[in-house]
Design goal:
Elements (H helix, E strand, L loop, with lengths): L1 E6 L2 E7 L8 H18 L6 E2 L5 H4 L1 H10 L2 E2 L13 H12 L4
Parallel strand pairs: 3-4
Antiparallel strand pairs: 1-2
Helix pairs in contact: 1-3
Length: 103
């Protein structure tokens, strides 16, 4: 399983879990810390607006608090939405290109 964070300029962070691992709140927070570092390096000085679904690791109290301490805004996601994130339709071609040759 992989987590991918991107913006209009391209991929910011790609992180893969080891086989058998799952994402829980503390693990997602570790990923957000890595994302914060990547944003600092690749997109310094930008206002961050995070869009993620309403999975439990994303909505856990600890996660919400960490996002708040980072000063990021979170876009709401409708509960039980059958849709992928609206940008997913444009993501996969770009991700395939950037990951070409990687295993």
């Amino acid at each position: 399983m992989g987590s991918i964070f991107w913006d209009a300029q391209g991929c910011i962070l790609v992180e893969f879990l080891e086989p058998g691992q799952t994402i829980y709140a503390a693990r997602y927070i570790q990923t957000l810390v890595k994302l914060r570092r990547a944003l600092h390096d690749k997109r310094p000085g930008r206002k961050i607006i995070l869009q993620h679904d309403n999975a439990r690791p994303h909505t856990a109290r600890a996660t919400v608090e960490k996002i708040r301490t980072f000063g990021w805004e979170t876009l709401p996601h409708p509960p039980y939405s059958p849709d992928l994130a609206p940008s997913d339709y444009h993501l996969f071609g770009s991700v395939k290109e950037q990951m070409r040759g990687q295993r």
